[in-house]
Design a protein that fits this description.
Number of domains of chain B: 1
Structural class of chain A: mainly alpha
Strand content of chain A: under 5%
CATH class of chain B: Mainly Alpha
Largest sheet of chain B: 2 strands, antiparallel
CATH topology of chain B: ABC transporter involved in vitamin B12 uptake, BtuC
Shape of chain A: globular
Helix content of chain B: over 70%
Largest sheet of chain A: 2 strands, antiparallel
Low-confidence stretches of chain B: 1-5
Radius of gyration of chain A: 19 Å
Low-confidence stretches of chain A: none
Number of strands of chain A: 4
Largest interface: A-B, 55 and 56 residues
Mean pLDDT of chain A: 87
CATH architecture of chain B: Orthogonal Bundle
Helix content of chain A: over 70%
Oligomer: heterodimer
Chain lengths: 297, 329
């Protein structure tokens, strides 16, 4: 006999719910992956996503419409991406420190903007369609994700620019010997990351009917990092990969969903995310025999 | 490289020369604090300064632990969670009628255990410290939430005085004229300074931090030293947790999270105080004091968490930017 929770977990409605949850996470994870590909790091990914969610929800709340919310969100994302790139390139900071600093600045700006209040939206059928609507049986958010994924995949795997970014991230010395401009790759990767993260904020605001006020920057970050590294360890070469990231994000969302259906307390979920994060990076590093130093100065 | 030429030209352009370059950041910090004092004279009053010094004990201890890891070129993002876990452990043990010495010993053991876990993971398995400690942070947080059934605070001050008096003594009484918490911070500072300045461990740690390959070839057990840094940061975070519990008489999950930002800001600001731009214990002390006084000043000025996040984030960036200009290439 089958267990009832398994039946529910595999029901069409629940699968579509998981697809929506996973898509929201995948947006953030894709943005982060874009920053990681060129050898950067983005501590601020979660915080930027939350800031843009607040800005987008604010724009909708002021009655500016969906197009304005999108442009505000993506614009803010691009701005933070540009700022991160400037810190890394012109002030020659290691990406970890630059984005750690900008993470805290962005968290502060978010609090300044929402005054610690949750922004809840009501009655916005057009805007809610992004995160909650469906086209036939398929959620709009999943279609959006598929479009973004296709664009990013083609860009990173099949254009000169994208492959150069992989080269810079993979082996900087070799890439520079081949005449690849590191600065261009770094700017591009932070800009793409910022744009995608801005978009993710807009999608999150629509998916969750507004924006939360609790500083959740690190929570988003840990799930997104887990998705990116799990995705990398799924691929044959162990390289970061947009498709891998997306699959891993969907997997992580269904994992949380399944655990909650099995009656596991949601207090356990952060810990499980932490374990997944560590295990997924462990697969890649365990053979290298290095110690876990990072560039922090 | 063109970057070098760029830096040299900026350095030549900077006025004031050697003196300003060595002490400019310190002077800047003092000016900022004096400005707050001019706006709100109560900020520099005897009572307020004493109060901030007592409050800063937690941050000083925490930032000292983080300094060890940063010297090794590691990062420990789990320190604030360790602080919370230690505070909750101490409070829970007292609430369940355990003796006072347990409330001091058990959190320390927990901190050391978390440090050993982190150390094994980063030094022996090779997990990058950002990722590993971020994972550890969430695992510990989950543990706290499960224990407290979703953030129920562990309250000490409602217990009978006979139970808590010996524990809360540390937070509320003075030893001679000096508050006990400040004595605790001074002891931790002395231990940290001694470890980094007087022992072989301190020298090995700087060696591993500046060139891990060279120190390995010179016979340093790099993995052991790297792991020891995490054990120290876990221990210091546990002491900070005890300090937090005795000062406030309450412990709840995520209570210490704001200290993570403060500790990073303190360490990075501290690099400005040393001439070489390296992380040092005295530098971290200066940074921690500045961060504590500034956040108190911001509160007095009526600015909340938003300003604190933004300013501390900017200070990290500013410290790194100034450091990049000063650093010899």
């Amino acid at each position: 006999m089958r267990h009832p929770t398994i039946l529910h977990a595999l029901s069409v409605n629940n699968l579509l719910d998981v697809l929506k949850q996973g898509a929201a996470l995948a947006f953030v994870a894709l943005g982060l992956t874009a920053a990681l590909v060129a050898g950067g790091f983005d501590m601020s990914a979660g915080a930027v996503s939350q800031l843009t969610a607040n800005l987008a929800a604010g724009a909708i709340g002021k009655g500016l419409g969906t197009a304005a919310a999108l442009s505000v969100g993506v614009g803010a994302g691009l701005t933070t991406g540009l700022a991160n790139a400037a810190l890394v390139l012109f002030l020659r900071m290691p990406p970890f420190v630059a984005t750690l600093g900008s993470m805290f600045v962005v968290m502060g700006l978010t609090l300044l903007y929402n005054h610690g209040q949750t922004l809840t939206l009501y009655d916005q059928p057009v805007f809610f369609r992004i995160g909650q609507g469906t086209v036939g049986p398929i959620p709009v958010i999943a279609l959006l994700l598929a479009c973004l994924l296709a664009t990013l995949h083609v860009f990173f795997r099949h254009t000169r620019e994208g492959l150069r970014m992989y080269a810079v991230g993979g082996n900087l010395a070799a890439a520079e010997l081949r005449g690849i401009d590191r600065r261009r790759a770094v700017i591009m990767s932070f800009l793409i990351a910022g744009g995608v993260l801005g978009l993710s904020g807009v999608v999150l605001a629509s998916y969750s009917y507004g924006a939360s006020a609790t500083a959740a920057g690190l929570d988003f970050l840990v799930s997104a990092l887990a998705a990116a590294f799990l995705g990398a360890s799924l691929s044959r070469t162990g390289e970061l990969d947009m498709i891998g990231t997306t699959i891993a994000a969907l997997f992580l969302a269904s994992l949380s969903n399944g655990l909650i259906l099995l009656g596991v307390s949601n207090l356990v979920l952060p810990g499980i995310q932490g374990i997944v994060l560590i295990l997924s990076i462990l697969l890649g590093v365990i053979g290298k025999r290095a110690i876990g130093q990072v560039t922090i100065f | 490289m063109e970057a070098t030429a760029h830096t040299t030209s900026i350095r030549r352009w900077l006025p004031g020369g050697e003196f300003l370059r060595a002490y400019g950041a310190l002077i800047g910090m003092v000016i900022v604090l004096l400005a707050v004092g001019v706006l709100k004279p109560s900020f520099l009053s005897y009572a307020n300064v004493g109060n901030v010094l007592r409050q800063s004990a937690v941050l000083i201890v925490l930032a000292c632990g983080l300094s060890f890891v940063l010297v090794l070129r590691g990062v420990d993002l789990s320190i604030a969670q360790t602080t919370d876990a230690a505070a909750i452990t101490a409070a829970a043990l007292l609430i369940h009628g355990q003796p006072v010495w347990m409330a001091f010993a058990a959190p320390l053991a927990l901190g050391a255990l978390i440090g050993v876990f982190n150390g094994l993971m980063m030094a022996y398995l090779g997990v990058p410290a950002i990722i590993g400690s971020l994972g550890a942070m969430f695992i510990i947080r989950s543990g706290e939430m499960i224990y407290t059934k979703g953030s129920e605070p562990q309250i000490l001050f409602t217990l009978p005085k006979s139970v808590t008096a010996d524990f809360l003594f540390l937070g509320q009484k003075t030893i001679g004229p000096v508050p006990a918490l400040i004595v605790l911070a001074l002891v931790c500072l002395a231990i940290a300074w001694g470890l980094s300045g007087l022992t072989p461990f301190g020298r090995y740690a700087r060696a591993v931090g500046s060139n891990v390959r060279a120190s390995f070839l010179a016979g340093v057990d790099t993995r052991m030293i790297f792991a020891a840094g995490f054990v120290l940061s876990g221990l210091f975070a546990a002491v900070a947790g005890i300090a937090m519990a005795v000062r406030t008489g309450i412990a709840s999950p995520r209570g210490a999270e704001p200290y993570l930002l403060d500790a990073f800001a303190a360490c990075y600001l501290g690099t400005l105080a040393s001439r070489t731009g390296a992380v040092s214990i005295p530098g971290t002390l200066i940074g921690a004091l500045f961060v504590s006084f500034l956040s108190n000043g911001l509160t007095i000025l009526g600015l909340g968490a938003a300003a604190r996040f933004t300013l501390n984030g900017m200070f990290i960036l500013l410290a790194m930017a100034v450091g990049a200009l000063r650093r010899p290439i």
